[in-house]
Amino acid sequence: MMGRIRWNYVGPRLTVILLVAATLHYGLPPLVRRSFTSTVQAVIGAKVEVGEVQCLLPDTRIVARNLAVADPQEPLANLLTADLLVLEVEPGSLARKRMVVRRGLLRGVRFGTSRTRSGALEEQETDTSLVSRFASTAAERGKEWICGYCVDLGATLEKDLRHEFQSIGLAEEMVARWPQAYQRYYSRVQDLLMRGRATDATIREARTNPLRHLAELREAAQEVDQLNRDLGELLEELDQLQRKFASDREAVWNAWQADRQRLEEGVALDEVDAQAVSDYLLQEEVAGRVGTVVRWIQRVRSMVPSSGDDLREPAQKRGADVLFAGLRRRPDFLIRSLELHGTARAGGETLDVTGSLIGLTTQPSIYGRPTIVKIAGRGTGTLDIDASFDRTTDEPVDHLVVRYSGPARPPTDLGRPEAFSFALGEGRDELEADLTLRESAVEGSILVTMHTRGLQVSTKRTATPRLADFLNDSLADVRRIETKLHLTGSLHEPTLRLESTLGKQVLAAVQSSAQREVAARRQALEDTLEERIQAKLDEAERLADNHRREVEQRLSEQQTTLIRLAADTVGMGDRPTLRLGSGDAGFPRRPPHDSTFQR
Amino acid sequence: MLAGFLQPVRLVVSVLIAHDSPRQLAAGISLGMLLGMVPKGNLTAVVLAGALFSLRVNRGAGLASAIAFSWLGMFLDPLAHRVGWQILSLQPLQHLFAACFELPLVPWSGLNNTVVVGQLVLGLYAVYPVYRLSLQLSQRWRDEVAEWLATHRPAALAGADDASRLELGE
Question: What is the least distance, in Å, from the CA of A314 to any CA of chain B?
Fold first, then answer.
């Protein structure tokens, strides 16, 4: 058999064929691996590592194993790893210096695994903060309001009472005002006394030689007359002061009656925006969820070219490539359809993930269609991501819709335990995000729905245990909290505006609980207030009495002086008319009507 | 051990002076010039290299010429770019060019690149003059070079069997 074959003809040709086959078998995979790695690195912007590569020429399939694509945002984490990548390449495309994958399969995908070596292609600053916590002055205001009525209820009511209850204010004003009034009156009495003494000294001196000091004696007589009139006026004013004091006491008593009525109706609490309460209770919880959503968005965006510009030509190329008129441009690298199968971590659990990636190319402006990514995760929770990345124009526009329903959530604290917090009962959470991104600017909303068995106070700092019971009663029926976050600004540090039903629910609960607490403490409050008002009035009366006695003493002294002066000036002119006080200048110690203050 | 070092020298000598006529030498030089001027990394250069090794031309001269004209060709890039642009931007031929580029393998040729086309055109233009010049030079100097090599050390290094193949005076 072997002798019948023309080996001098067959031999060389067979050798050439075997050489070509061997070259393709052993030489092509490294070439393909190198091309694939460089292309994907150019697309993703991070290191790509591939294990074994096989080129199956009859089917024009490329099979790669142990694929690892680093995360460009986190050099020590992988964007994804996969056990198997199969690409079915259109044969005609290779002959036309393009690589078009008709269909691809990525199996054993895992997102976000860790790396031991950095996957960054070059030194770059890594921004590890996905979302800066939205510091809100409204949140601080909400915290102060809640703490004011749940923790420091007594002090808060005290402050409110000062503004709301007039009787205390009037009593305090009396304490401040009346001593000053008596002090001014006293000053005038003192002045009168000094004038009297001066006149007395003048008369004594004149009496040593009346004839020589006749004029002074006449002036002294006139001065005595004036002093007498002034004394009369002062005595009338003293009567008026006494009546005014009694009138003020009655006004305080009337105000107290009105305040008692208001206390029975309830205390008006300070107003606060429900938004402020929502901000305080939800800011940390929401910031974490927003961070998770942003993380997933960045992962998905990393799979497509980062800008509308196509990959740049190598800088060292000689000459320029001419695009002929009439030649339809097609992208050099295109994956028409790629299926994903794998797992992903979300909400603390592992989900089975399937997905598809359609129209992935290094030259989206030439391809002319957006890249579509669909990912579905199933486990105890569910995750669905629908995204389109339109990089066909200079302004890339990405649109992402994320729907997530988490597994059963354990009880969670809302707010800060060191200030005041509520425990959100166990339940399930749902998240729906609809975001549009232009370059790095984000606009859209995230709706978080928290299903729960109710809210409870989770801190022991309430003013009284009874108040905590009131709050728990009011919040026990809360079953659903909807929170909508509006995002604007940049994706790395978005500006968040929060709207939530939780603020209104907690606001109503705190107000009703505080009112119930006030009602329960009303009698004690009444007694306390009455005691304080009594104390203030007693203090005012004591101060007034002290000044009054001083005044009366001085007036009595003045009267004695004037009598003597009148006697000394007899015959010097018109006899002065001496008018004395209108009688006892005693003050009533109690208001005339029946009084609450009578024991 | 010394023979191992001398083997490349022997090969160079034998390639340069053995077997080939002046015409083959000149053809190798001109084909090598064309290969050297065209930028590498495309199918055009591969085809030219294949032609150099497939045709009955002096491969050694061709390779040496390719190396030399690779360096020289880079200085002609600006001129080649202008020539290539003029050709590739001809309006009446645009549809022809586009239709050709839709065919398989043609995109690998690099013939849409201005320098590739320009260097190819310049090289084709220079092929005949280089061939004629190389032919005259080889006819003039080849015998003297061969005689010198035969009587001096390089020939001895080349080995007696190689020296016996020298076409002295033929």
Answer: 13
